[in-house]
Amino acid sequence: MSSASNAASLSSREVIRRRHEALAYRFCGPAVLLLGLTVIAPVLFVLVASLTDYRLGRTTFQWIGLGNYVTMFSSPYVWQALRNSAVYTAIVVPLSVFLALFVAVLIHGRTTSRRFYEIVYFLPVASTLTAMSIVWSYVLNGRIGPLADLMASMGLPRLDFFSDDSLALSGLAIIGIWRLVGYNVVLFLAGLTTIPAEVQDAASLDGMDNFFDRLRYVTWPLLAPTTVLVIVLNCIQAFQVFDTVAVLTNGGPRGATNMLLYEINTQSFGSLKIGYGSALTVLYLILIGGFSILQVALSDRKGES
Q1: DSSP assignment, residue 52?
Q2: How far apart are the first and last CA of the chain?
Q3: Which residues, including other chains, have CB under 8 Å from residue 120's CB and lie 6 or more apart?
Q4: Beta-bridge partner residues of 63
Q5: Which of 37, 158, 245, 283 could link 148 by a cystine bridge, Cβ 3.0 to 4.6 Å?
Q6: Domains of the chain by residue range
Q7: Reduced to 3 states, what is the DSSP secondary structure of residue 63?
Q8: CATH top-level class for 67-304?
Q9: Three-class secondary structure of residue 88 per DSSP
Q10: pLDDT (tens digit, 9 = 90+) per residue, 28-61?
């Protein structure tokens, strides 16, 4: 009797377990389907299309293997776009991170007006970048812009950022920093709330009253995980710059502001070379994936230490 009852109990448990598994699969099914249709399927299409000579509007195509990749890595325009993206990232990311950290520490120390400053610094993130690019085109205009007038009143030469190929990338970097600082401030403020007030009090008791010493030796080390996250996210966003290029420069003058994402758009929808544009997109996905893997690796390493 005992063996029969045990077998019946095990059988009922197995039935219940299978029912729970089936229910779990039903709940996961819509999410998996949505993920497959919106993420996995497009990536697979890009991978397959990059191996063809398909042009938008054609009904036929030919398999050319790695031909698009050979053309891509031998193109001076691609290397110029990669170089511009790297320089843009090298300018925007460090400045936006350090400025945001400094501003976040100042805001975190306020009590009455903290909410006001949080809103003010977050406004660039909430604004439409396309519309704000037009405003910046006026501000940085070398003939009628207020910055040029200010420099002229000081006896300095007028700078027309978007007409000079040596200044155009710097002009885009100014806009990028302006936009990312507010985003980074919010992330750093969230990180600052995790630092116990006792740590700051202990630093003061130890004689560390200087603001910059406390920031360097106490606050910033405790914000290391947040800093890693901010840097990686900023690198990804810097490589995704497109709106300001499309609105202000169209990649010019003389290719000085041609970015990787803008080159993808030009080849795919300007020249209608979907196959070649897909190869560029694969390169872009590899770079973005590399940044994401770096973030995970650094976060795990920090967690272990």
Answers
A1: B
A2: 57
A3: none
A4: 52
A5: 158
A6: 1-49, 67-304
A7: strand
A8: mainly alpha
A9: helix
A10: 888 888 988 888 899 999 999 999 999 988 888 8
